[in-house]
Write a structure and sequence with these properties.
about 650 residues; alpha+beta; Aldehyde Ferredoxin Oxidoreductase,  A, domain 1; Aldehyde Ferredoxin Oxidoreductase Protein, subunit A, domain 3; Aldehyde Ferredoxin Oxidoreductase Protein, subunit A, domain 2; 3 domains
Length: about 650
């Protein structure tokens, strides 16, 4: 028995029909599952020029190769489609319970094509798929919808549910897909794709067994990994994190950070535990990327991870995760509890807006979870509007009376409400900053911070240029999980693949500001590894603990019965990365047009804070990356030689603009 099921489910919403497709073993060996299988299917099925909100676009839900196999950190699922936000390959990653539920239904993917003429949801159990009416659910928020569907399908097995909220229904291009009452596959605007298909929800209640080719080996590897990873966190205090971050921010050198320390932080606080360090070292942006902690000196006391932890009622784990970084926190008001906000949400709603009201963060996070809107893009949109207001590019008359001054909590709350509902002034921001800026004077585009149309997550490329590079060259632009120099240091890939350059324990900070010194080779390795572990269903936090502690390659072999080396798995990752790039080329995307906003490269440089004065040449980094991965150095289009070497010419048709 192998960890993959060998088939996917296709649902045609136009005709209300469905069919199964058997996937050959050879395809799994070439593309694994998750994002890799999704890339193979969507490249094959979505024609050039497809409207992302039209019937030709396909929305897929895909668990990872290792999901349910008994391995750790492998409970993630991918949503994939052509992105309506960027026009590129679109994907969004999420944890929780849905990935395993897809496998228990007997599939490695559920894919939707066409458009229903009425609101519907898919119900899937041991008796097979059913397309059911969702008129009574349309207009309800994501958590209300999930609760109603749990009531309707309550039985021996609690179903796993993915749904959209009002933002997805109104086709907001920054809407996501919600599961587990507030966990989002948030990026790429895929909630709008689901809304365009009038697909309100997916309800999964299968009970098939999922295993691995060698379950005993998988279990033994998991036991060893648990011993290596789960270390006591009692000695840590948030004040120590503040001190550490500030010390790093003042040093003229960088150093490789510890995955063991990250595991302790995540186990105790979750991702908010990284906030103090990130602020101090210059990773966290302020005031729409124009400031530093000098603009918000109260930040450490106002947004203290220990305060968040004190409000935590209970922790929760994604399936197969030993850390449990998620949590449910107490709230004031009519709604008494919510998901603990993640680091990205905290930064989005505090430092970016100069807001020090933690209760407001809880409230707005819950609003966005219920509405089904990406907290990263939402915060970026509000920050853009505040800068426009400060500069006089919009006025209080334009905003309908909202005083969009920095840190104005009532204005933030109301503006987010309007964005979710696509009402009033907020409707102007419901499709992200790139579209909003297009209606203003040209200089406003300088304040619209994005890559290819997608708002950037809250890790400053002026500290780590690798973050800006990956946000610009990945086929899904603007994604912070795509890669960074820090990630290479923490993944520790050179311990398993000797041909890769080892990271230096201590190095001059300026070493990161050139694509030389092995940086381009490291960046390509990160891209390839990211596609591998996204196809495996692994969590990138787990991977940051390091492949010398987390045996992800051994788990892949134990789950499948293969005997591939880590280098061969990274080669598979390169094949997936290249096919995603070819998807963009066929859709008419110019890779050179997906660059991050100049402000993030230090143009103009910051005048204060840990990143003051730093600048890097993004074009130089991009050309070096393209050359290293085997794409045309000048255009970013994969070369014919690379397509042939990766054995993907069987699916990639000759495309105009591809060098031959």
């Amino acid at each position: 028995m192998k960890a993959y099921t060998g088939k996917v489910l296709w649902v045609d919403l136009t005709h209300g029909t469905w069919h199964e497709e058997t996937i050959p073993d050879a395809i799994y060996q070439q593309y694994l599952a998750g994002i890799g299988l999704g890339a193979w299917l969507l490249y094959r099925e979505i024609p050039a020029g497809a409207d992302p909100l039209g019937p030709e676009n396909i929305l897929g839900f895909l668990p990872g190769l290792l999901t349910g196999s008994g391995s750790l950190f492998t409970g993630r699922w991918m949503a994939v489609a052509k992105s309506p936000l960027t026009g590129t390959w679109g994907d969004a990653n999420c944890g929780g319970t849905l990935a395993f539920a897809i496998k228990q239904c007997g599939y490695d993917g559920i894919l939707f094509k066409g458009i229903s003429n009425r609101p519907v949801y898919l119900y899937l159990d041991a008796h097979g798929p059913q397309i059911r009416d969702a008129a009574h659910l349309w207009g309800k928020d994501a958590i209300e919808t999930e609760d109603l569907l749990h009531q309707a399908h309550h039985g021996k097995k609690q179903p796993a549910i993915a749904t959209i909220g009002p933002a997805g229904e109104s086709l907001s291009l920054i809407s996501g897909i919600v599961n587990d009452r507030g966990r989002l596959a948030a990026r790429s605007g895929l909630g709008a794709v689901m809304g365009s298909k009038r697909l309100k929800a997916v309800v999964l209640a299968g009970s098939q067994r999922v295993s691995a080719h060698d379950p005993m080996k998988t279990k033994l590897l998991a036991l060893k990994c648990s011993r290596d990873v789960i270390l006591p966190a009692r000695l840590l205090h948030s004040r120590a994190l503040t001190f550490l971050g500030r010390a790093i921010g003042k040093l003229p050198v960088g150093f490789t950070q510890s995955g063991a320390l990250l595991a302790r932080v995540l186990a105790k606080w979750g991702t908010v535990g990284t906030f103090q360090v990130s602020v101090g070292m210059g990773d966290t942006p302020f005031k729409n990327w124009t400031g530093s902690e000098r603009d918000m000196p109260q930040v450490y006391d106002a947004i203290d991870p220990d305060r968040v932890r004190q409000s935590e009622k209970r922790k929760y784990h994604c399936r197969g995760c030993p850390l449990g970084c998620g949590g449910i926190v107490e709230m004031k008001g009519e709604i008494t509890e919510s998901h603990k906000p993640e680091y990205e949400t905290i930064a989005s709603l505090t430092t970016m807006l100069l807001n020090d009201d933690l209760d407001l963060v809880y409230e707005v996070n819950e609003m966005l979870n219920r509405g089904g809107m990406d907290t990263i893009s939402a915060g970026g949109a509000v920050a853009f509007a505040m800068e426009c207001y400060e500069q006089g590019w919009i006025t209080q008359e334009d905003t309908g009376g909202l005083e969009l001054t920095w840190g104005n909590a009532p204005a933030i709350r109301e503006l987010v409400r309007q964005m979710i509902a696509r009402q009033g002034f907020g409707a102007w921001l419901s499709d992200g900053v790139k579209k909003a800026a297009a209606s203003l004077r040209p200089e406003a585009s300088q304040a619209a911070i994005h890559a290819g149309g997608q708002e950037i997550a809250y890790h400053d490329p002026r500290l780590d240029p690798g973050m800006g590079l990956h946000a610009s060259v990945d086929p899904t632009p603007g994604r912070h999980t795509s890669g960074a120099y820090l990630y290479y240091e923490m993944y520790r890939l050179w311990t398993r693949i000797p041909d890769l350059p080892p990271a230096l324990q201590v190095y001059p900070r300026t070493r990161r500001y050139t694509p030389g010194n092995g940086n381009s080779q490291a960046s390509v390795a990160v891209s390839n590894f990211t596609q591998f572990y996204n196809s495996a269903g692994a969590c990138y936090f787990g991977m940051l603990i390091g492949v010398d502690r987390v045996p992800i390659f051994e788990w892949a072999n134990a789950a499948t019965g293969w005997n591939l080396t880590p280098a061969e798995y990274l080669r598979t990752g390169q094949r997936i990365q290249t096919l995603r790039q070819m998807f963009n080329i066929r859709q008419g995307i110019d890779p050179r047009a997906l660059k991050i906003s100049p402000r993030l490269t230090g143009s103009p440089p910051l005048e204060h804070g840990p990143n003051r004065g730093f600048h890097f040449d993004l074009d130089e980094f991009m050309h070096a990356y393209w050359k290293a991965i085997g794409w045309d150095e000048a255009t970013g289009i994969p070369t014919q030689e690379t397509l042939q070497a990766l054995d993907i010419l069987d699916i990639v048709q000759p495309t105009e603009g591809v060098p031959v």
